[in-house]
UniProtKB/TrEMBL annotation:
Keywords: Membrane, Transmembrane, Transmembrane helix
Subcellular location field: Membrane
Annotated ranges, domain GGDEF: 323-457
Protein name (record): Sensor domain-containing diguanylate cyclase
Length: 462
């Protein structure tokens, strides 16, 4: 029974194009996944950065505002008692310093001249300071006087050494129904202690932090802590609020950008390329296995299985195409004697030469297959009975010519039987059986002819 036609799979151009398209699609998918991971990491970093600066902001606001709140007690007392003595100031200042360790010193400056400093030890240089003579501090004093509100200056270099944040509050009192300017109170916060207390001194392993807004001017103020480059596309930024002013604190990754995930991209691309390589190798192995399953390994002709598939296909297509075809069974005569006389190696060489000689007399559209042993089958689409008969005679003629095997000439012949579809057979099975039967009939005829010639030759001998 003839097997149904089995497809040979996509041709190389189609297969490799498909592999290339899938590979490109996988590259796009890999980049999409890497992009999603990068976005996720960016989101995580931003959340972590916001949490980091939120904690620092809360610490800064808590510590600075608590100091300012305590200092308001002294301001209120002086406002109510503008003519009070230094002893009372001393008691209130000592209480404030005791409650607020970050306070470096407290000062009172009647008429903008520093007359009182607590504690005096280490701050002697501030005593007698005339603000109007200090261009680095006088602007903030004028601002406090004009706004009549507390201002936060700094961080500034203190005359007594070190850096400090100075909260200055203008003090006004009423006397005789009139409002008079008394002077300034100032609370100096130790800047280095503040930075250390809120955890900024030793930095952060994950982020670089920076603060801008010198003199509480917010985004318009100078950067006074950290690298100014942090404010170039920071991961997160947040205001730090004080009475009548603010700072801006920002965070950025140590390398200034979201990780590129080169390792993930390399791994993804590697897997895609591995897929492409494996797919190409598998296709090559498939083509090799398919070729082996459809090709005779000795002669390179197609094998019986391949020919049966093509025969069935032509028969199935005939109702639509109307194209008939012929089949020739070709058997090599005296091949067994060649094997017995010269050996199987020479017999194999003879089969190869016979296949080449047959192939030289068929069209590109024809299929030459080895049926096994010393038999070949020729399938010829679009031919009729007279074409098959003529080719059968031609094949018998060319196969009777000698074959040169090294220094020897070997003579064989061929017996050819043919059948035509659909003129002589209505199915592929009938066609094969008819061509095979005719080939054996032709083989018997040739044996009889050879026997007759041999008898005549013997009678002629003396």
């Amino acid at each position: 029974m003839v097997h149904h036609f089995i497809r040979k799979g996509p041709p190389p151009v189609v297969a490799y194009t498909l592999i290339l398209l899938i590979t490109l699609l996988l590259f796009v998918l890999a980049e999409f996944v890497v992009g999603l991971v990068q976005q996720r990491m960016a989101q995580v970093q931003r959340v972590e950065a916001v949490a980091e600066i939120a904690q620092r902001r809360a610490d800064l606001e808590s510590r600075i505002n608590s100091v300012l709140y305590l200092s308001s007690t002294l301001n209120t007392y002086v406002r109510v008692n503008p003519n009070s003595n230094v002893d009372r100031w001393y008691e209130l200042a000592r209480e404030i310093v005791r409650e607020a360790p970050l306070v470096r010193n407290i000062g009172l400056a009647p008429d903008n001249v520093m007359r009182f400093v607590y504690p005096l030890s280490g701050n002697e240089a501030a005593l007698g300071l005339v603000y109007q003579e200090r261009p680095d501090q006088w602007p903030s004093v004028v601002e406090a006087m004009l706004t009549e509100k507390m201002t936060l200056a700094g961080p500034v270099n203190l005359v007594q050494g070190g850096k400090g944040l100075i909260a200055r509050t203008p003090i006004y009192y009423e006397e005789g129904g009139e409002r008079h300017y008394w002077g300034l109170s100032s609370v100096v916060i130790n800047y280095d202690d503040l930075i250390s207390d809120v955890g900024l001194k030793n930095g952060n392993d994950a982020f670089r932090l920076a603060i801008r807004g010198r003199d509480a001017k917010g985004s318009e103020g100078e950067v006074f802590f950290g690298d100014p480059a942090v404010f170039d596309e920071p991961l997160a930024r947040m205001p730090v609020y004080f009475p009548n002013g603010s700072w801006i604190i920002a965070a950025k990754t140590d390398n200034g950008r979201i990780p590129s995930l080169t390792w993930l991209r390399t791994a993804a691309w590697g897997l895609v390329l591995l897929f492409a390589a494996v797919a190409a190798v598998c296709y090559q192995l498939y083509r090799f296995a398919l070729n082996q399953s459809l090709t005779d390994p000795l002669t390179g002709c197609e094998n019986r299985r391949s020919l049966l598939q093509k025969t069935q296909l032509l028969a199935d297509l005939y109702p639509r195409s109307g194209i008939g075809f012929s089949m020739l069974f070709i058997d090599l005569n005296h091949f067994k004697q060649v094997n017995d006389t010269y050996g199987h190696h020479v017999g194999d060489m003879l089969l190869i030469e016979a296949a080449a000689r047959l192939g030289a007399h068929v069209r590109k559209s024809d299929t030459l297959a080895r049926n096994g042993g010393d038999e070949f089958i020729l399938l010829m689409p679009g031919t009729r009975c007279r074409d098959a008969k003529a080719l059968a005679a031609k094949i018998e003629s060319v196969m009777s010519e000698p074959f040169a095997m090294g220094d020897q000439e070997i003579f064989i012949s061929a017996s050819v039987g043919f059948a035509v579809f659909p003129d002589e057979a209505k199915s592929a099975d009938q066609l094969i059986n008819l061509a095979d039967t005719r080939m054996y009939s032709r083989k018997r005829e040739k044996k009889a002819e050879e026997a007759s010639r041999a008898g005549e030759s013997a009678e002629q001998e003396p």
